[in-house]
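Structural biology now treats backbone shape like a language. To illustrate, our science desk offers a sequence and the tokens encoding its fold:
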Amino acid sequence: MVLSDSEESRVIEMAWEDRTPFEAIEDQFGLDEKALISFMRNKLKLGSFKLWRSRVTGRKTKHLKLRSPDIDRAYCSTQYKHR
């Protein structure tokens, strides 16, 4: 799969977001968790990749099946506030 620069940027942004599950990235961009890890390994500097992996490993909000049913959105309520 070939992504545009803006799509690559959005995938990286979504991967770093705590509340965006891997399944949302797969639905939108076709990258399952394994493909996303490979993508991030290729796009980030080694230190940034290691930091990202340690951040998302075991994080319940990154997997829909592990999430609390109380979480019904993928972003902070003030993240996309319009004026």
Notes: Helices lie at 5-16, 22-29, 33-43, 46-56. Residues 5-62 form one domain. The chain has a mean pLDDT of 83.
